[in-house]
Amino acid sequence: MAVHDSAPGIEVTVESGGTTLQEYPDNDDTTIIPKVKKSYIEAPSDQTFAVKIVTTPEFHFRTHAVVFEVEVDGLISQLSMQREARQRENPDRAYTTLIKGHERSIKGSRYLQEFTFSELTLGDDDAAKDVEEARRVGTIFVKIHRVVESGPERDFGTSMVPRGVQSMSEKAVKGSGVSHCVSLGKEIAVANRRCVPCSYTDGFANPFATFEFKYRSRKALQQLLVIPRSPSPEQEVPLEERPLESLTIHEKDELIRRMRARNAESDQSLKRERVEVKPQTSGGSRSKKPRTAGNIDVIDLCDESD
User: Looking at residues 84-91, what average pLDDT do you find?
Assistant: First the structure.
């Protein structure tokens, strides 16, 4: 569950197959963008998904309403509104908004096309034309805006057909781990809903909070070191017992580190052994007096009778 410092009281998750997709922190991205919360999720191939947004009593609207904007791959977007008045009527209740896909109107009827994780086809096309799109593909943005209603409700009339991405140059996505894109399912008839014109308090380009989910395959998440690699049967055999030529560079380094650690422990144990001094006989030696060298006492342990 993603929570945001700029939007306390709002929780955002991505749901698929009846479960919440686990989130992993994006530790490699050192770019700090104010008001943006970033994380990775694993994308199950050919599975539909939905964005779930929960508004809890802890959230303070400050305006008439908030608008949740879901943008997928930079090309597909869907808006949903949550009114402050509705929350005021039941101040102790949490409200859930579920955005399952893209909705549009066709001849007065409303249709939904569900979001689906699809494997991205990679080819040898010209990378230059795909570079800009590659920066957006593989990402779900959930942007939250404060708005003021600026007109009466009206029938929903959007008939726009969003453009999706199905293929891309392999060079354009190199190093990003992008493995999937979002496609839209078949049109499903849904109940008609009303919409209302709004004025965005901070401007449409300036949401007060943004959640960014980078969706990748499990293999890609392992390659990016976001999640641990699955151990192979060979890796379960101790390094010391495996053939040297089968070890990777990192495994050889680890083997050397272990050997050095064992050698260091052996050296320390030898130094701790007590040095035995040969006992002196009654007639063969005389008592020794400490000799001084500067400020350091030097004890002579040599037996003069030898």
Answer: 88
Asked if residue 15 lies in contact with residue 52, where contact means CB atoms within 8 angstroms, the answer is: yes
Q: How many CB atoms lie within 10 A of CB 216?
A: 23
User: What is the tens place of the pLDDT at every residue in 220-243?
Assistant: 999 888 988 776 555 567 878 888
Q: How far apart are CA 77 and CA 87, in angstroms?
A: 25
- Kindly report each contact of residues 77-86 with a partner whose C-beta sits within 8 Å and lies 24 or more positions away, as own/partner: 77/102, 77/162, 78/102, 78/103, 80/53, 81/147, 81/196, 81/198, 82/53, 82/55
Question: What is the number of alpha carbons within 13 Å of residue 136 lying toward its C-beta?
Answer: 14
At 95 the three-state DSSP class reads: strand
Threshold 0.85, pTM exceeds: no
Closest by CA position to 112, among listed 158, 55, 54: 158
